[in-house]
Amino acid sequence: MDAAEKRYLELLSRSFPTVAKASAEVINLSAILNLPKGTEFFASDIHGEYEAFSHILRNGSGSIRLKIDDVFGDELSKEEKRTLATLIYYPREKSRLELSKVSDVAAWYGKMLPRLIAVCKRAARKYTRSRVRKALPEDFAYIIEELMYADTRNFDKEAYYAAIVDAVVRTGRGPAFVEALCGLIQRLAIERLHIIGDIYDRGPHPDAIMEALIDHHSVDIQWGNHDIVWMGASLGQRGCIAHVVRNCARYGNLSILEDAYGINILPLARFALDAYKDDPCVGFALKGHPDTMSEAEILMNVKIQKAMAIIQFKVEGALIDENPAFGLQSRKLLDKIDYERGTVVCDGVEYELTDKMFPTIDPCDPYKLTPGERDVMDRLVSAFTGCEKLQRHMRFFLKTGSLYKIDNGNLLFHACVPLNADGSLKEVDVFGKKLKGRALYDEMERWVRIAFFDEDAEMRKRGADMLWYLWLGEGSPLFAKSKMATFELYLIADKAARKEVKNPFYTLLDNEDVFAGIFRDFGLDPETSHIICGHVPVKVKDGEDPVKCNGKVIMIDGGFSKAYQSTTGIAGYTLISNSHGFVLAAHEPLESAQAAVERELDIHSSRRVVERVGVRTLVADTDTGAKLKAHVADLERLLEAYRHGDIPERKKS
């Protein structure tokens, strides 16, 4: 035994000071390795749709209903099962509603609590008691554990268990106990949650999603392009802020800024309504805005949208000049406008503009912000950087997130690995370094963290500009297109000018040789690995299959965002990985959480087995299993050292 190994084993002996302690841990871990792997749950492109996402988390993508069927079979009617499922999903709201209908409250608890305990037992079946104990809600840990592991055939304890339930109800803790049980069922249904990007933009409640994720017991996030632009905005990066505010206005979601994050948009509204008061803002109609908006609110959002679009084009022009290596010079279009003729030259072609009113643009200096625009941007920068809630959410992104993740042989990222037309990895210039594949991802993530944490202000600025590039740059693995055609979308009617060409990654999705190269570049086995990604909505209604490359690539953007449900024909995908393989769930829209509670409307989900393994996957076969095996090997080496006298046991005197 060399000195380094001895020093390590001596440190390990502090946690396991005797042969008995070390042996017990080896036995415990060896048993855990032979349990079925836990259920992993993947979701992508949630885009602020909190109610639908929350419901799918609550019902475990349909798995909780299956557990109810397993437990009760024909013992309960369909109506009773539906009520029980709704109670598990929304315990506080549903129990309040149900209790308002009954005259005998104790009888209701006497019926529901044993049913909830039975579902708890089923959900906990593949976990150790120790693991379940750690998941138990603190206030009711002892009681729930006693009831879950009760022997129903033990008549000596029948009165004991009945007394527990009776005391819970008698002391007024019934509602809290029901909520604790239902929360435990939800927690046990999903061991690990993977979010494959794009929590933000379009939908109304990304902040509520972030709060739910912060409270979740086990989650990781792969940043999407719509997440990274909010991260940049939180740093005061002006291109990112301009997009975020413009996009909120476009979808009628300025409440995200005002109500969710307390960002005052009144100065912006005043500026927009004044500067564009005589402007019909042709081409700036809202997209997918709430039905409850008044005409005055719609008009304000339209004018704010145009005001921020023009500010965005100006701010981006300055950023392009500051970062020539980004290769975005062709995206400077304000100086390509003939303001007298109302035309613009884009990609060498002259087009007529759909909107020719530019009251805040000086044709002689088109990228110069007016005093009013400067004031708006200065106020927004101060508001974004000073918002404590936004900063907390972005720090959570940094703590739990990354540009990609390798987990149990799966490569998780939001959009793509940039490729050339021939399928080779595309080189991208990152501040003078030409990188591709995994090295590109690693370097870009390094700059994301520099933007937030570096002590040098200039380095932080370069990092923040890289976040902006990740949002819209051709070489960005999060954007994956030839250009961000925001200008053309608003101001040119010809669809040819608006075309954003996807990276060849998407045209080569069924080329197994190309994707074998990607897997190898990330250190994965092409025969057994999968890519799980989102970003591009899968057109299910047109017959598109989300499973590509002979099962090696699974694209799970199914349209959580209401704005894309007409494109996909469904309301989102979730992917479930359990010990039996992969199951893909396609979801229909949720009417509302209120309807789910009051009318027991669940999200209907069709489930499809994507891959079924021949031999059930155990903990031993996972990344966690590899760590546990290494720990067992270390403990066995410690046992050997104890028995040979190389290290003395630390027995108490």
Can you put this structure into words, describing what you see?
This protein has 653 residues and is an alpha/beta fold. The chain is built from 27 helices and 17 strands. The chain has a seven-stranded mixed beta sheet. A five-stranded mixed beta sheet has the order 8-9-12-14-13, with no helix packed on it. A three-stranded antiparallel beta sheet has the order 4-5-6, with no helix packed on it. A hairpin with a 2-residue loop joins strand 5 and strand 6 (349-352). Helix 13 runs antiparallel to helix 21 (457-472). The longest helix is centred in the middle third of the chain and has 28 residues, at 295-322. The chain is globular. The mean pLDDT is 94.
Mean pLDDT, to the nearest integer, reads: 94
β-strand number: 17
What is the distance, rounded to the nearest whole angstrom, between the alpha carbons of the first and last residues?
28 Å
Largest sheet: 7 strands, mixed
Strand-residue proportion? 5-15%
Brief overview:
With 653 residues, this protein is α/β, with parallel strands linked by helices. The chain is built from 27 helices and 17 strands.
Give the SSE map.
Elements: H1 3-15, H2 19-32, E1 40-43, H3 50-58, H4 63-72, H5 78-89, H6 91-99, H7 105-123, H8 129-135, H9 141-148, H10 158-170, H11 174-189, E2 192-195, H12 206-215, E3 219-222, H13 225-234, H14 238-250, H15 255-260, H16 266-275, H17 295-322, E4 337-338, E5 343-346, E6 349-352, H18 371-385, H19 388-400, E7 401-402, E8 404-407, E9 410-413, E10 428-430, E11 433-435, H20 437-453, H21 457-472, H22 486-491, H23 495-498, H24 512-521, E12 530-533, E13 547-548, E14 553-555, H25 565-568, E15 573-578, E16 581-587, H26 593-598, E17 605-612, H27 623-644
Parallel strand pairs: 1-2, 2-3, 3-7, 9-12, 12-14
Antiparallel strand pairs: 1-15, 4-5, 5-6, 8-9, 10-11, 13-14, 15-16, 16-17
Helix pairs in contact: 1-27, 2-27, 4-5, 4-7, 5-6, 6-11, 7-10, 7-11, 13-14, 13-21, 14-17, 16-17, 20-21
